């Protein structure tokens, strides 16, 4: 089980595009998630977006850096940034992403 939530207990069904960067020494990294037309922004959604929660059997990874993108006044996308400040945080994040990728049929390609 690996899922992403924007409101506690409400699974986001849209699979994001994820971009990863990492410092040369491996001590820090950043993951940028981009969700096009996510369920969390649906007109009938009444749940408040309180952050992005990455949940799997090991527990929960949380980031509060979530921004909405608007086009002509209508919400269209969410962008969330997760910063990893240690190699341990990077390894934990990658374990989550492996599980999430398996469940959602994602691939990985290096630039």
User: Counting H and I runs of at least 4 residues, what is the number of helices?
Assistant: 1
Q: Helical percent range?
A: 10-25%
What profile does the largest beta sheet have? 4 strands, antiparallel
Q: Please count the beta strands (DSSP E, at least 2 residues each).
A: 8
Note the overall shape.
globular
> What structural class do you assign from the helix and strand content?
alpha+beta
* Unreliably modeled segments: none
C-alpha Rg, in Å? 14 Å
In which order are the strands of the major sheet placed? 2-1-5-6
**Averaged pLDDT, please?**
92
The H/E string reads EEEEEEEEH
How far apart are the termini? Answer: 28 Å
Explain how this protein is built:
16% of the residues lie in helices and 44% in strands. A hairpin with a 2-residue loop joins β5 (52-56) and β6 (59-63). It contains 1 helix and 8 strands. The longest helix has 18 residues, at 87-104. The protein has 111 residues and is α+β, with helices and mostly antiparallel strands. The strands form 2 sheets. The protein has a 4-stranded antiparallel sheet. Strands 3-4-8-7 form a 4-stranded antiparallel sheet. The chain has one helix at 87-104; strands at 2-7, 10-11, 17-22, 29-36, 52-56, 59-63, 66-71, 74-84.
């Amino acid at each position: 089980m690996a899922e992403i939530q924007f409101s506690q207990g409400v699974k986001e069904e849209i699979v994001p595009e994820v971009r990863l960067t990492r410092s040369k020494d491996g001590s820090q990294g950043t993951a940028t998630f981009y969700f096009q037309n996510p369920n969390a922004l649906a007109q009938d959604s009444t749940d408040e977006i309180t952050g992005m929660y990455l949940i799997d059997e090991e527990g929960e990874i949380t980031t509060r850096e979530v921004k909405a993108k608007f086009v002509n006044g209508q919400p269209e996308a969410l962008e969330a940034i997760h910063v990893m400040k240690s190699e341990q945080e990077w390894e934990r994040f990658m374990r989550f992403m492996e599980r999430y990728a398996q469940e959602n049929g994602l691939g990985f390609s290096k630039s």
